[in-house]
Amino acid sequence: MSKIYEKAPAKINLVLDVLNKREDGFHEVEMVMTMVDLADRLEMEELPRDQIVLSSQAGFIPLDEKNLAFQAARLIKERYGVKRGVYIHLDKQIPVAAGLAGGSSDAAAALRGLNRLWNLNLSTEELETLGAELGSDIPFCIRGGTALARGRGEKLETISPPPQCWVILAKPPINVSTADVYGKFRVSDIPKHPSVADMMGALSRQSFHDMCASLGNVLESVTLNRYPEVKQIKDCMIKSGADGVLMSGSGPTVFGLVSKEVKVARVYNGLRGFCKEVYVARMLT
Ligand SMILES: C[C@@](CO)(OP(=O)(O)O)[C@H](O)COP(=O)(O)OP(=O)(O)OC[C@H]1O[C@@H](n2ccc(N)nc2=O)[C@H](O)[C@@H]1O
Ligand SMILES: Nc1ncnc2c1ncn2[C@@H]1O[C@H](COP(=O)(O)OP(=O)(O)O)[C@@H](O)[C@H]1O
């Protein structure tokens, strides 16, 4: 039986602004999101029985209905009345609960893959709408590329990709819950909102310098206060020469942007002293 493969890349938020808290409990956001080449990989194969089976080499994620890839498979199967089974193997490379949307990207890859495996012929827009039922970041993970995200994150506009550069990612050994961070966030505590317009201008001009100058994430105010080690990592990346540094999503992963390869080793080595999980990636442009 034929196998289908899908890559599930990690996302980073170049800008994350929160406008207000909505009646439904979600926050109205404005985000500039892009993908990096640190990725999980999904292998999907038809099962002779009507069942979803998930496996992974990673011992630290759920493999039942708590897994977002499992939920994605169940949703698309039920919605389109598919009476066939699938075996999904998830090669997990993206750190978990890190602010890199690993779970969301796995769910997106499962939707894309099963659309092909089961010949459903759904458009990207239809997959995005389906994905939004499972999580705010999933529509972006389906579309990929670089996007301005609004609403709770599901309203997308594709924009110019960032100029190519190195992305050094450091994840301290703490797990951060997105719901907790949004729960503690107060719009009134933000002294200055980052500018989405400045970032979009930087990207359309392909200006690495202006992109670094326009980075901003209002959720840092919550996570950096609560976890001083995240602030330490930021300071270390700046000191060791990264050109732009920001926490991704609700954290705790911090990414540093570097334009010249010669600087990568310096930033990487600077971090290794007090952070075990450090990754070197490239922008997916
Ligand atoms: C912060 C961001 C930035 O990209 O990413 P992560 O740090 O999770 O990677 C996202 O907004 C996270 O999106 P995602 O992780 O899909 O969130 P969801 O599952 O939809 O929601 C988890 C919880 O976060 C809160 N939430 C999420 C999105 C939003 N716009 N407002 C919210 O208040 C809600 O309390 C919700 O119950
Ligand atoms: N496929 C998956 N990969 C990673 N975590 C998953 C997955 N499915 C469900 N989860 C659960 O979702 C939570 C958030 O995971 P993740 O998507 O990695 O975080 P974030 O949105 O912060 O990047 C974790 O607590 C994890 O147990």
Structure description:
This protein is an alpha+beta fold and 285 residues long. It folds into two domains: 3-158, Ribosomal Protein S5, domain 2 (2-Layer Sandwich); 166-282, 2-Layer Sandwich (Alpha-Beta Plaits). It is 34% helix and 29% strand. It has helices at residues 68-79, 102-117, 124-132, 138-143, 178-184, 196-204, 208-213, 220-226, 228-239, 261-272; strands spanning 3-21, 27-47, 52-56, 85-91, 146-150, 155-158, 166-171, 216-217, 244-247, 254-258, 277-282. The strands form two sheets. Strands 1, 2, 3, 4, 5, 6 and 8 form a seven-stranded mixed β-sheet that branches. It starts with a strand and ends with a strand. The mean pLDDT is 97. Bound molecules: 4-diphosphocytidyl-2-C-methyl-D-erythritol 2-phosphate and adenosine-5'-diphosphate. Adenosine-5'-diphosphate (ADP) binds next to α1 and α2. The site of 4-diphosphocytidyl-2-C-methyl-D-erythritol 2-phosphate (SUD) has 20 residues, from β1, β2 and α5. One of its GO terms (molecular function) is 4-(cytidine 5'-diphospho)-2-C-methyl-D-erythritol kinase activity. InterPro entries: GHMP_kinase_C_dom (IPR013750), GHMP_kinase_C_sf (IPR036554), GHMP_kinase_N_dom (IPR006204), IspE (IPR004424), Ribosomal_Su5_D2-typ_SF (IPR020568), Ribsml_uS5_D2-typ_fold_subgr (IPR014721). Residues 205-275 form the GHMP kinase C-terminal domain.
